[in-house]
Structures
1.
Amino acid sequence: MLVLDAERGQLVATIPLPSSPRGLALCPGQGRLYVAGGDAGIVSVIGTASNEVLHTVKVGAAAWGLALSPDCSRLYIAGGRSDSLIVLDTASFRAEAVAVGRNPQGVALGPEGRWLASLNYASKDLSVLDAQSLRLEQTVATRSGPHSWSLSPDGRWLAVGALDSREVLLIDAQTLRVVSTYVSEAAPEGLAFRTDTELWISSLASDYVEVLHLTLQAGQQVLMPRRYTTRIKTGQGPFSIAFSRDGRWAYVSNMREGSVVKIDARSRRVVARFAVGGEPHRLVLLE
């Protein structure tokens, strides 16, 4: 794992990990970054002050997407081929597995952490659980395997990307009903809301990110547009998207190019390109 200075792109630290990182979750209050180790079934805990691995925890057969409870007391882990969602107590490092759909690749967290949803790629659905009791509340069909997600800052909308169909589903985060669908030009690998109504989409098969805006129809119904507002050329294989806290700057990892670009989110212009080598996967921004 590489730690970069976000302003100058200079390498700050290289952190050796026991397996390739597949998911990231940051808790600034704890000064910890949690890293999922894919099919190794481990989670590495990194101290953000020391840039060192503090703990390595075996959680199951696989560990993919991650999400933290609002108070960082629980880490939710997509268990992949184990067909389970794993809940890790971040104080004791005790893990509990909960059965969900088949091959969950990610975990979405609802408004204020009231519910969580496993993105079940093989069963093509979401398993929605009560975040406290971990009881199954609802199953949401997605038609194609869900892979990525983003919650709007106001907590009103959950966007879910389905790779095979190239669809991005807009889900009402209160009713958990699919209200609209957008078909991307390429498989939506990464999703990130910049504002309550502006969504960015990346695809490994392209060299750009799509920016689109939700539209308000008569009767206050919100819909996905039929076409993106703009496309921003980033480089080959854009994957992960991260925004600064104020939404002014966007950072995109280009897996096939081995770079990270910094974008002025207002002008939609790439202002810096940092060569990092390898295949930069996930991004997280420490501010």
2.
Amino acid sequence: MMKIAALQLSTLPMSSAKLDYYFRICKNKDVELLLLSEYALNSFFKELEVTPLSMIKEQSNHKINVLKELCVKYDMSVVAPIVHVKSQAVYKSTVRLSAKSVHYYDQQFLINYKHWNEEKFFANECGEFSLPSFSVNGMKFGIINGFELHFDIAFSQVMKKGIDVILCPSASTFDSSSRWIEILKMRAFTNSVYILRSNRVGTFKDTTFEWKFYGHSNLVSPWGEVELTLGSHEEVLIVEISKDELVNARKTWGWKKALSKRDIL
């Protein structure tokens, strides 16, 4: 058994006090990995569009330094979306930190709708998909950001890489909660993995919309069942994941075996 956690937030203040508070709670509950929601370390996308590059860089660098200190202080790993400024270009990334290392992964599918066009704003390259993965104490994790969850290609490497848990940070809004639950259950079931989703909370108003981020962060089991769900306010979800449960689900349904017989994996 292993304990992991999802922290659903709106944009954090520059002070480290709130993050320290949640890290301390997680440490006391023996959590080994903490997942943050999208646009928790940075301002929401619509605000970033009108923010000077220097301020974005300052905000991101400060939050990364805070996380580094907390990972060392509490000996914990954290995965969090971050706006990463490199050579005067802005990238939408995910950072993975531990007490000893820092790794960045650029998001590979970006939302590109008229009212929310990250693809146009960020400098992320459009290329062949590669699933970011890493291990913590024998459990294999993959990172699939919220918008990427909609694309089958993002899951094509899950079984090949032996992923046990998908970490899905998101900033879902409007009336999408029911749809998200269904796609999460389907992805977890057909890939025999856990999915831990951390979704943003809070509101943002512009001249056209009021963006209500509803939270509902959850853990979906490899059986395709929602095991635990948060409400719509700032909260932390602490869950247990089990290798035995993964083995039982994979043995029962045999998805990987069926694919292997056909030389698909």
3.
Amino acid sequence: MDDLRKIRELYGEPEEGPGVRNRVRARIEAGGGRRRPRWTPMLASLAVAAVAAVAFAVPRLMTAHPAEDKVSVLRAAAGVAEVLPPTKGAYWHVKRLINDSEVRELWVARDGRAWTTTRSGTTTVSAPTKEPFTMDGHPMTIAEIEALPGDPVALRAHVNGILRDVPERERGGVVADALSGLLWSKPAPPDVRAAAYRALAELPDVRYLGRSTFAYDVRGVKRELVIDPRDSQVVKAITGVATEVVLEAEWTDEKQ
């Protein structure tokens, strides 16, 4: 139960009730933003246990509603996402814990420079990367991501246009994956993230597994996302045998 207590200390006590947007607006007025809590080295070792605890704690937010299903949960997350203020910074930074053994970080400057850092045990490797953002292999710039439509129908049509060469039998899962990437791995602004959530809610290829967890298949490989409905952020992504705990996904002025 210590892990559950630590999760509550990190994220606060789960709240219930339908007034999600009002609570988020109140948090914003008090100075909140998109930043996830900072993870110190001491807490990093708790990351996997923490996500396991979130898997049990987060449902308390959503299961209070008898009508809980894919559409209602994703639309609720969209309502949270769209009222969060856009964050600013010199670098887009994503930090992930992979299979409880390796920490990977991505840093992308607004001028396009990008590099990755991988830490495993006592070994740290840094290297530049040329295409930090892609959509099924199609490179994207920060400017292109920020200019994506904030309307779910228009966003889905735009994504379908980028993925027009994907065979029809694969299209649903690939589109779901492209939209999911806008929720955390790419620097999408609040209205685009909200549109992505609403577009995902309408995709038949997206399945709701309960406990704020969604799944879809990409070319035969199952992918799952666990979200935190309180701030609309992705807390865990699972692809095949790889489990990624999302430690940070934010704009920052701090450089590696």
4.
Amino acid sequence: MNKYSLTTPRLLLLASVLSLSACTTVNYTAQQFVPKDPGKISLLPSVAPAYQVENLEYKHADGAISRGVYIRKPGADFTVLYFMGSGVRVDANGTSFAKAFTELNANVISFDYRGFGRSDSNGKQHSLIELESDALALYDYARKMVPGRMVVHGHSFGSFVAARLASKRAIDALVMEGTGTTALAYSDNMVPWFAKPFVKINLDEELTAVDNRAALRNYAGPVLIINGVNDVQTPAATARELFASIPRSNKRYEEVANAGHMNALSKPETLKAYRDFLNGQF
């Protein structure tokens, strides 16, 4: 779910829809057709010059190789192990997701998923089971490498990966951003409201079993859930439902005004909530 800009196909679709509804003029500029990667990792020094980017590589037992980055500086307060959303890559989007953590005075570790971006599969078909196994191995690898507090943070698809990890490791803290309850709810939100009466979603057995509520029953640590008010991919209602299902007091929910699916961490109130959460304010 990498929607940092309005792409050319979306612009053309918008023009087509508007042309059917009324007489409308749509203006284009050459800049809209020029490919851009405004959040690419190589731009990080321009927004966080104190940080260094170290390339990481981890070889799994089955031969797959996870590659990622360790974004760090001396004197950081904590480290974030960040699981990205589907379609988000270290090289294309690293600065976009890391900037907020540098403003929190945190180091960041993140890996591309198996067979995606920098990372390689072992040549065999893989599914969620392998991604879960990779996440556990990468957590153990990072935990041995990093001293002090390490927060596991998952965004969108990555929030499901992070929740499964939290159910199997005694992590320091969990942050779930742009999240929801189940894979079924997540898939249903991908269907526009006007198409819902005509679309039936069938999930395979593996996807049907994906449930953040069930995963968090096995996690006793602190959890912060962040969702944008304007998020249509993972609506705030499903995030609130997830939050309500956690039967503990060491939890916090932050619903961010004027934020959608991709930009909640860019808001000052979100960063304040993050700091307060880590200071034990639930």
